[in-house]
Amino acid sequence: MPAIVLVGAQWGDEGKGKATDLLGSRVDAVVKFNGGNNAGHTIVIGDEKYALHLLPSGILTPGCVPIIGNGVVIDLGVLFEEIDGLRARGVDTSSLVVSASAHLIPSYNRTLDKVTERFLGSRRIGTTGRGIGPAYADKMARVGIRVQDLFDEEGLRAKVAGALTLKNQVLVKIYNRRAVDVDEVVDELLAHADRLRPMVADTSLLLERMLDEGRTVVLEAGQATLLDVDHGTYPFVTSSNATAGGACTGSGIPPTRISAVIAIAKAYTTRVGEGPFPTELLDEQGERLRSVGAEYGTTTGRPRRCGWFDAVIARYAARVNGVTDFVLTKLDVLTGLDEIPVCVAYDVDGVRHDEIPMTQREFARATPIYETFPGWDEDISSATTLNDLPKNARQYVETLEEMIKAPISAVGVGPEREATVTVRDLLR
What we know:
Layout: E1 3-8, H1 16-23, E2 29-32, E3 41-45, E4 48-52, E5 65-68, E6 73-74, H2 76-88, E7 97-99, E8 103-104, H3 107-120, H4 132-141, H5 153-174, H6 182-190, H7 193-196, E9 200-201, H8 203-212, E10 217-220, H9 244-249, E11 258-266, E12 269-271, H10 284-292, E13 305-307, E14 309-310, H11 311-321, E15 325-329, E16 339-348, E17 351-353, H12 360-364, E18 367-374, H13 391-404, E19 408-412, E20 420-422
Parallel strand pairs: 1-10, 1-11, 2-5, 2-10, 5-7, 6-8, 7-9, 11-15, 14-16, 15-19
Antiparallel strand pairs: 3-4, 12-13, 16-17, 16-18, 19-20
Helix pairs in contact: 3-4, 5-6
């Protein structure tokens, strides 16, 4: 039975949580395989809206096992704050499983994240300041703290002391901050150990057994393709692999078990933070997309930068992820526009590029080449099939499908769970 990868096809915030929810009760486990509390999913169920950050969106589906994989970095305070918030609203979180090999975000990583961004000034990356990048840097430098370390106090203390040997020098001598106390960090981490212990498991082994039993597993990316540390708009990216390849390393599931890759794309484009964005609109059209689409970060509340759909980056996402299906979200936000431009290629110094330029320097200078399509005024929020859509809306979807060279299997026509046009079964 399948392991299905779910990724964002743009710069994040595409609606991956809703796409996971579309798979519904047919999914037995949802695994968050990368990132931390620097991104979020917003899911609307009836009159209830849920903002998830660290927790996989499967936490809201009864009978589904939500798993935080080894590729995630975890702020324990945020994790339990999120769990408590859901419990207060009547959501059962008792089935949550956390990988013993996931890395933690000690307080000193949050401090370093914030002071480094301030130090960079105009060269800042635009991080959320939540310690994600420094935690991944520690992981690669082999000085990171993992979940399993909480259950070995002596080893934990030695690892924290080792990490702070250099970090305190940086904080004091470069950033003019006070040194971080080892005991203070250890006590903060150990305060969560007893509560966390029952949730911790060898999640790679658990997932292998679930797949062997014929159960369906969804591997859910945080962030998105153009924020992938290898394949995104570097250096304006996240610090993990948010593409389909990262699903294997971040969960412990081998690539031979992956049966489908579903990519989520908005019917327009947004991004948060710094970095190039060819179709960005700095006018009333961009403000309209932001206002109608409620384009504010789930985690940070920051206003998202908005622009027209970019078929070039969607094709790129299809290629690097091996996309089998697209889910197009927020088509309803375009209702009421007379014309809808779509970026079909770039102009870089007078040269047409039908694919993303090889270098970031070229990409930063890319200007969009648009084709314009007729809009529609009809309310589409109750549509359930393509034939329910107005002619121009249907043609817009079909044209995008041709441009991105992968099938669009579902279309979001509103924020609610049921506000979806189904073209073909995602679990076919």
